[in-house]
Design brief:
The protein has a single domain, classed as ABC transporter involved in vitamin B12 uptake, BtuC. Helices cover 79% and strands 3% of the residues. It is built from 11 helices and 2 strands; from the N terminus they run ααααββααααααα. It has a two-stranded antiparallel sheet. The N and C termini lie far apart (44 Å).
């Protein structure tokens, strides 16, 4: 029972990693109709910035977190101003492809300013945790789960319960209609992509102690997060988080029960995407 509980917690924490990135994908897609592959680059840049201040510089955790989030916000705003703004006028597909350029530039910058060698990031909190019988859940694991829950509520409330969310969703449906309604789309674009960068930065700081850091560390996480976001059809934050948690849990169970077939974890990712696509198509057929 203890072994099952240990792997279950590991799986749920891994699921939180996927869910946090998936929330960033849902946030941008539902607000702009764009699949933001750049979230992986923003998270990686924030992770290295956090490590430079917290680990290398010996500064406080909260200062390092503030710097990392600030870097993410600036990276998101810069990508909107230099890449996304012009491409959005050509359509959301062009803008989605453009986010790949943002990833490439960000990862190249990381290679220039930081050595490309992998590095470990210390946990955000003490290695101690809460004792649940013989099981110990670390404070970092608790923080990852709590942050996932909080950000899910924030994204849902912002998009579904505020006038700003309604304006963003209107922009995602038709930018021209939004302009005719008097919505300042340029201003919303700037704020949206800056916020997306900040959200990715938070995810990057939480994920870093689990995965370690190298320029391509989050690209694998991004693919699995995309699978989780597909469960929510890229528009439902609750289902995206649920998809991430289920995927992480199933991966942990495969690692526990079938360690000789660890490659099955990647198969689970594609099965998740396939199931999400089939379910979406079935719902459209019924409708």
């Amino acid at each position: 029972m203890l072994e099952f509980s240990t792997f279950a917690v590991i799986g749920l924490v891994a699921g939180c990693m996927y869910a946090l990135i998936a929330l960033g994908l849902v946030f941008v897609y539902r607000s702009a109709g764009v699949i933001n592959f750049g979230v992986a680059g923003f998270a990686t840049l924030a992770g290295f910035s956090f490590a430079s201040v917290y680990d290398d510089g010996g500064r406080s955790y909260w200062l390092a977190l503030a710097v990392a989030v600030g870097v993410g916000v600036l990276a998101g705003a810069a990508s909107e101003r230099l890449v996304i703004r012009e491409l959005l006028d050509q359509g959301t597909t062009s803008a989605s492809v453009g986010t790949l350029a943002a990833v490439a530039v960000t990862l190249a910058s990381i290679t220039v300013f930081w050595a490309p060698n992998p590095r470990r990031i210390p946990p955000s909190f003490s290695a101690k945790g809460v004792n649940l019988g013989d099981l110990v859940v670390t404070y970092h694991q608790i923080a990852a789960m709590a942050l996932t829950a909080v950000l899910c509520v924030v994204v849902w409330a912002l998009l579904d319960r505020t006038r700003h969310g309604r304006a963003l969703r209107c922009m995602a449906e038709s930018r021209q209609t939004a302009m005719l309604m008097g919505i300042p789309i340029r201003r919303y674009d700037a704020v949206l992509w800056a916020a997306a960068g900040g959200l990715a930065a938070l995810a990057g700081v939480v994920i870093a102690p689990q995965t370690g850091m190298n320029p391509g560390a989050y690209t694998v996480v991004l693919v699995k997060a995309l699978a989780a976001a597909m469960v929510g059809r890229l528009v439902n934050p609750w289902l995206a988080v649920a998809g991430g948690l289920v995927l992480g849990f199933l991966e942990a169970m495969v690692t526990w029960q079938l360690p000789q077939y660890v490659g099955l974890r990647d198969v689970l990712m594609f099965l998740t995407i396939g199931a999400a696509l089939l379910l979406t198509e079935r719902q459209r057929t019924v409708a």
